[in-house]
């Protein structure tokens, strides 16, 4: 299997073994991870998936997130245009057999990634054998190794939701494989397979439609003219894509895409005063070209990596900025080089074309994807760069030992980085805490981190010991609202965090901002009313500010006139202000609503005493002592005027 001299001494079996090991080991820690991010949308909380096999018809009859949003009262403008039913159907079958088991889910996911790497090796080897049989095996192996360990792939491999990326690339390559086999032996069966796999790729993710162009480019550039058969494969590829598009239109309608009007789902919206407006074209395309350059950078130097490129995680760049100009020149140079090399170096031409064409749907050049960029978007395109690297390496590695050493060192370094990055995906809180440093200006990530900390605090049994989680949640939530002042969900969370932290004035202020954003949403009123009540209590007992306390309590009472605690404190305030009859009115109403509140009876004792009604005062104190003597004794220390 290996004679011990260099990389060229591995036979096919040895190559496959090493490839599988390098595909699985760097991401093996994902086996012990939980479900994270959008796993809940497509798997753990998707109603259609939970139905198992019975839910598959509904999966194919709705947009990909409908099973999550149905009945939740939530929605997403961007998700309405997602039609990727194949991975959800796989999850439904999986749920039918083993339920939502994270170990099984990650094991299957990792296995499919390993199989994809083998498929890459076999497909590229078949593609290169048409003209370069002596280099095909090693060039395709090097390319597959690069692909297997690339840290940029950590998101796809560690996140179960990203099965759509693995399926889309896998079925696209199977379609290419079938088209290549048709070039070798023109059998109708192979044409049918090419079309079927193309259809399955598109049903996995719409970006796979790029294979309708990529496969003919591969046949035209890599297959010798005397063996080239392009017309029939092109027809079946178009037919496969058409089947998907017809189904998509039937489910989603004829409108293929509408840019979201939501700040969180449209990176090219900016605030002009209080209004959200479209970013200037020069700024939009300058920012897009910055992200295109960043994709190339992360393929070579995979740091920093982050799952979140939501608004406003990336600064705005004008098209006239140096980085945008540099990116434009780099990408124009790639196009020029690909055209120049089409005869002399067709492999590099195809590699560049594969990268650019596969990246185009997610580039924001044609369609607003809802995020500046995404590391998962580079998953399929990266194969083009890996092929170029593998081809160049195969040209020099056999002759130069130091190149072999460099390659081996690079594989180890990338594997270590992939393992470390995969570890970040163990759970939501770990991921958010790690990535917040690299996406500090993302409103969504700041809100997500705050929410995760808040949830962990709520679920903890010892609230006092875990109060640090509560205090840690407030800064990112505050920052998210600063980035996006009308972020309703985050305002809700921030108000709750201040309330739980007993910062009642801040809670009231945030709740009022929420009401301004969503005036028709009654879900906040209960929290707002309680925050006003507790603020009034604090103003009265801790700050001796009777007037401010009365104002806050009256606002609270207006929202809920059956809250006995509001009535009790309001009664105490009125007594301190000298309005004894009004105090008595509030306290009697409080006692009627909740006769088992000892502090209400203690306050009644004080008010009756001040009114000079000793008999009623005695009855009140007796009732309070029966319920809770400790509370009564505490309030008895109040000086009776």
Summarize the structure.
With 641 residues, the protein is mostly helical.
Structure description:
The protein is mostly helical. Helix content is 66%, strand content 1%. It is built from 30 helices and two strands. It has helices at residues 12-24, 39-44, 47-50, 56-60, 66-69, 85-98, 102-129, 133-149, 154-158, 163-184, 188-204, 211-222, 231-252, 281-300, 322-340, 346-359, 382-396, 401-423, 428-435, 443-459, 467-483, 488-500, 504-517, 525-541, 546-559, 564-576, 580-593, 598-611, 614-627, 629-636; strands at residues 269-272, 275-278. It has a two-stranded antiparallel sheet with strand order 1-2. Helix 21 (467-483) runs antiparallel to helix 22 (488-500). The longest helix has 28 residues, at 102-129. The radius of gyration is 32 Å and the shape is elongated. It starts with 11 loop residues before the first helix and ends in a 5-residue tail after the last helix. Residues 1-5 have low confidence and may be disordered.
């Amino acid at each position: 299997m290996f004679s011990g001299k260099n990389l060229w001494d591995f036979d096919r079996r040895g190559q496959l073994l090493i490839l599988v090991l390098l595909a699985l080991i760097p991401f093996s820690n994902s086996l012990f991870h939980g479900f994270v991010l959008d796993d809940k949308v497509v798997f753990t909380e998707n109603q259609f998936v939970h139905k198992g096999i019975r839910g598959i018809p509904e999966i194919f009859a709705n947009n990909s997130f409908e099973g999550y949003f149905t009945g939740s009262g939530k929605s997403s403008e961007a998700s309405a245009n997602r039609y990727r039913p194949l991975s959800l159907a796989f999850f439904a079958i999986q749920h039918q057999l083993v339920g939502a088991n994270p170990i099984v889910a990650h094991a299957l996911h990792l296995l499919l990634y390993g199989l994809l790497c083998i498929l890459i090796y076999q497909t590229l080897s078949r593609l290169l054998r048409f003209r370069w049989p002596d280099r095909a095996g090693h060039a395709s192996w090097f390319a597959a190794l690069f692909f297997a360990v690339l840290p940029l792939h950590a998101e796809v491999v560690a996140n179960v939701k990203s099965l759509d990326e693995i399926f889309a690339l896998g079925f696209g390559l199977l379609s290419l494989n079938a088209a290549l086999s048709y070039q070798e032996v023109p059998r109708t069966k192979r044409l049918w397979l090419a079309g079927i796999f193309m259809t399955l790729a598109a049903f996995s993710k719409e970006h796979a439609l790029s294979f309708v162009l990529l496969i003919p480019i591969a046949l035209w550039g890599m297959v010798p003219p005397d063996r080239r058969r392009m017309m029939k494969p092109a027809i079946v590829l178009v037919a496969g894509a058409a089947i998907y598009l017809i189904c998509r239109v039937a489910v989603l309608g004829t409108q293929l895409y509408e840019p979201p009007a939501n700040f969180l789902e449209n990176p090219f919206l900016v605030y002009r005063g209080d209004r959200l407006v479209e970013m200037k074209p020069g700024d939009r395309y300058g920012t897009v070209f910055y992200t295109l350059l960043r994709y190339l950078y992360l393929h070579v130097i995979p740091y920093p990596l982050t799952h979140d490129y939501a608004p406003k995680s990336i600064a705005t760049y004008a098209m006239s900025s140096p980085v945008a100009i540099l990116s434009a020149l780099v990408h124009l140079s790639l196009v020029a080089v690909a055209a120049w090399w089409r005869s002399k170096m067709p492999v590099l031409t195809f590699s560049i074309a594969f990268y650019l064409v596969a990246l185009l749907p997610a580039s924001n050049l044609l369609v607003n994807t809802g995020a500046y960029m995404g590391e998962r978007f580079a998953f399929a395109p990266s194969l083009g760069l890996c092929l170029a690297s593998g081809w160049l390496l195969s040209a020099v590695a056999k002759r130069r030992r130091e190149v072999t050493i460099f390659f081996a060192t690079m594989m180890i370094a990338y594997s270590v980085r992939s393992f470390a990055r995969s570890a970040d995906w163990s759970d939501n809180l770990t991921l958010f805490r790690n990535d917040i440093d690299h996406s500090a200006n993302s409103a969504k990530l700041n809100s997500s981190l705050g929410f995760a900390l808040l949830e962990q605090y709520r679920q903890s049994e010892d609230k006092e010991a875990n109060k640090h989680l509560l205090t840690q949640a407030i800064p990112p939530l505050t920052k998210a609202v600063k980035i996006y002042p009308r972020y309703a969900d985050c305002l809700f969370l921030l108000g709750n965090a201040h309330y739980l932290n007993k910062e009642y004035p801040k809670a009231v202020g945030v709740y009022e901002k929420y009401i301004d954003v969503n005036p028709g949403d009654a879900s906040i009123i209960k929290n707002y009313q309680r925050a006003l009540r507790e603020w009034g209590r604090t103003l009265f007992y801790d700050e001796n500010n009777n007037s401010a306390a009365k104002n806050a309590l009256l606002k609270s009472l207006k929202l809920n006139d059956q809250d006995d605690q509001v009535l009790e404190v309001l009664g105490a305030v009125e007594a301190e202000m000298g309005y004894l009859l009004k105090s008595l009115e509030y306290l009697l109403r409080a006692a009627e609503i909740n006769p088992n509140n000892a502090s209400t009876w203690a306050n009644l004792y004080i008010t009756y005493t001040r009114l000079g009604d000793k008999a009623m005062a005695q009855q009140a104190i007796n009732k309070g002592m029966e319920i809770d003597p400790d509370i009564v004794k505490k309030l008895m220390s109040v000086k009776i005027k």
